[in-house]
Amino acid sequence: MWTLVLNCGSSSVKFALLNLDDDRVGLTGLAERLGSAGASARLDMEGERRTADLRGGSYAEAFAVLAGALDELGVRTQVGAVGHRVVHGGERFHAPVRLTDEVLGEIRACVPLAPLHNPANIAGIEAAQAAFPDAAHVAVFDTAFHQTMPEVAYRYPVPGDWYRQHGVRRYGFHGTSHAYVAARAAQDLGRPLAELNLVTAHLGNGCSVCAVQGGRSVDTSMGLTPLEGLVMGTRSGDVDPGLHDYIARQAGLSLSEVTSALNKESGLLGLSGLSNDMRELEEAAGRGHAGARLALDVFVYRLAKQMAGMAVALGRVDALVFTGGIGENSAAVRGAVLARLGVLGAAVDDEANRAAVRGQAGRISAPGALAALVVNTDEERMIAEQTRALLAGVSA
Ligand code: ADP
């Protein structure tokens, strides 16, 4: 059976077609700039790249192109399941769930918690259900893995009614990736996941760390929204909550303008004044660009502090795990973080660290030091696996 994995954003859809029975990837692709005149799709299949204009720029059109590609591959009727990435499942969803009208309604009820993401996820699900009516559609939530966090980790010290009436608590995101790399790290360490205490760091454009105890999330750095925690490409991560009022008055900004600047103009971009892209910043810092150097230093310092903080949630740390575009590729960031985490017993093996790039993951810690690993994340595969497991359980 083939499983189609869809990740619908507000202006893009990422797709992957996977066959878990024999470990085959049928195609991968991306439709971009949806909703605008320049919308287009690219599909990588059978060793070549195809592109298509999507003149109307809708999800429906993107899925029509995808369906055409599935016909060409001769697998359209064998797509038994569609796994959808859904960003926010609130407190309602602790695990993947088969999509019904009732479930869609509950995802809709989570829109106020993720006003940018959930509406796009819902629109994508509806269009995909119309395009692939015979497949079982499953929602896999970014927040679900973190629903095991204890109350001490998920409550904010704010008025209790904010939590009870408005759901103000920490939810956490990137759950699919943290769960996947924790399981992979256990395999790489040759130990049962159930026995391990891991700190996983997902470092992409968005960044978060997670304390994983016996395969369950017990704390994470993102909170009510994906803005809390680490320095990210354009997101600030933690700031003083008093900052909003102060800068609104001083700079004459509205609350939504402040929020937008914290999401889109801050982080590595805000600190460097140059770029949100780690690769570009490493190059610029190498040439002596002071802003790029500062951005790297703050990124690493705050990341190391958060990772060390996760040791409190775990009590004992067995390994540190790096993943995501930065975690898998930046030896400089990993090396600098491990140097700051000597307090946990971390020490880097420089040669192994330099050698670890995407596709060449492995152990990067010095012999005798706290284990540190690079693991390649694969959210599409994890969504496909969870989708299959749910459907197997349902039909069993
Ligand atoms: P997303 O979160 O959008 O999936 P990725 O996981 O691909 O993004 O991560 C993107 C980040 O990874 C960017 O900051 C990019 O610069 C960084 N990155 C990718 N390759 C390298 C590299 N070789 N060295 C340093 N950073 C890299």
Automatic annotation (TrEMBL):
Entry protein name: Acetate kinase
Organism (species): Deinococcus arcticus
Marked site positions, Transition state stabilizer: H174, R235
Pfam families from the UniProt entry: Acetate_kinase (PF00871)
GO biological process: acetate metabolic process; acetyl-CoA biosynthetic process
CDD domains (UniProt xref): ASKHA_NBD_AcK_PK
Cofactor binding annotation: Mg(2+). Can also accept Mn(2+).
Residues annotated to bind ATP: K14, H202, L203, G204, N205, G206, D277, M278, R279, G325, I326, G327, E328, N329
Record-linked SUPFAM superfamilies: Actin-like ATPase domain
Binding site for substrate: R85
Gene3D superfamilies, A to Z: 3.30.420.40
Quaternary assembly: Homodimer.
Record function comment: Catalyzes the formation of acetyl phosphate from acetate and ATP. Can also catalyze the reverse reaction.
Catalytic activity, reaction form: acetate + ATP = acetyl phosphate + ADP
Cofactor(s), by name: Mg(2+); Mn(2+)
Domain of life where this protein originates: Bacteria
PROSITE patterns named in the record: ACETATE_KINASE_1, ACETATE_KINASE_2
Family: Belongs to the acetokinase family.
Catalytic residues of the enzyme: D142
Top-rank EC class of the record's enzyme: transferase
